[in-house]
């Protein structure tokens, strides 16, 4: 009789392979092989294919993990945390992965694979997850009069995403210090939320 599978061990092994995949894709691009991934992970090919039937399924799992982490971030926010604070904390959370040295090389890999329907679908799910989550928090911040109300919650959510995406694009371009520049990104998001960049007669409130 086979032993029952320990879900925690299975997840740990999957995350180990996912991390190795990130390294392999960053080092070798979309042409990274399963052999290279297995070597980095320190596993045999049988273990790899037990968890991921194809290399593309591994890339898909990396993207799905991003959406999962976004849902977890918003789900675990304490109810007593101000929605404005949640928005700013999310920006910090979203760009934290960009401080990983592998990020600059991995982002173009995703872009190159985006033409594949399953990859495009995963990217759309991640975008929809972020947009929906941000929209809800922005709407609550507007109800509390803690952010501007001259733009819809959805429009503000999209602009927050645009600022994060632009930041990621600069990281992918190389020569951009994500750690050093994150505080300035946060300031830009604060200006967006306060309306300073759109309405000269509105002044950011001191925090």
What's the helical proportion of residues? Answer: over 70%
Task: Give me the number of helical elements.
Answer: 9
Task: Sketch the topology as an H/E string, one letter per element.
Answer: HHHHHHHHH
Low-pLDDT segments, ≥5 res = 197-204
Gross morphology is: globular
> How far is the first residue's CA from the last residue's CA?
62 Å
Overall pLDDT confidence:
90
Whole-number count of domains: 2
Q: Which CATH class of the largest domain applies here?
A: Mainly Alpha
The CATH superfamily title of the largest domain = Tetracycline Repressor, domain 2
- Relative strand content: under 5%
Q: CATH topology of the largest domain, anyone?
A: Tetracycline Repressor, domain 2
The radius of gyration is 20 Å
What is the CATH-assigned architecture of the largest domain?
Orthogonal Bundle
Give me the count of strands: 0
Helix/strand/pairing class, anyone?
A: mainly alpha
Characterize the biggest β-sheet. none
Overall description:
The structure is a single chain. This protein has 207 residues and is an all-alpha fold. It folds into two domains: 1-53, Arc Repressor Mutant, subunit A (Orthogonal Bundle), CATH 1.10.10.60; 60-194, Tetracycline Repressor, domain 2 (Orthogonal Bundle). Helices cover 71% and strands 0% of the residues. It contains nine helices and no strands. It has helices at 7-28, 34-41, 45-51, 55-75, 83-96, 103-113, 117-143, 153-173, 178-194. Helix 4 (55-75) runs parallel beside helix 7 (117-143) and helix 5 packs antiparallel against helix 9. The longest helix has 27 residues, at 117-143. The radius of gyration is 20 Å and the shape is globular. The termini are far apart. Residues 197-204 have low confidence and may be disordered.
């Amino acid at each position: 009789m086979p032993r029952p599978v320990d879900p925690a061990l299975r997840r740990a092994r999957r995350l180990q392979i996912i991390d190795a995949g990130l390294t392999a894709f960053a080092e070798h691009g979309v042409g990274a092989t399963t052999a290279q991934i297995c070597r980095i992970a320190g596993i045999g090919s049988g273990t790899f294919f037990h968890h991921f039937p194809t290399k593309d399924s591994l890339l898909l799992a990396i993207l799905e993990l991003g959406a999962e982490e976004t849902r977890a971030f918003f789900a675990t926010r304490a109810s007593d945390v101000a929605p404005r604070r949640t928005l700013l904390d999310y920006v910090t959370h979203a760009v934290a992965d960009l401080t990983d040295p592998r990020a600059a090389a991995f982002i173009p890999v995703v872009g190159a694979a985006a033409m594949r329907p399953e990859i495009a679908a995963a990217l759309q799910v991640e975008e929809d997850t972020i947009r929906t989550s941000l929209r809800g928090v922005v709407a609550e911040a507007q109800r509390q009069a803690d952010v501007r109300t001259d733009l819809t919650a959805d429009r503000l959510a999209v602009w927050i995403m645009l600022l994060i995406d632009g930041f990621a694009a600069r990281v992918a371009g190389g020569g951009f210090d994500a750690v050093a520049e994150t505080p300035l990104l946060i300031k830009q998001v604060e200006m967006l939320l306060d309306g300073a960049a759109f309405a000269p007669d509105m002044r950011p409130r001191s925090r």
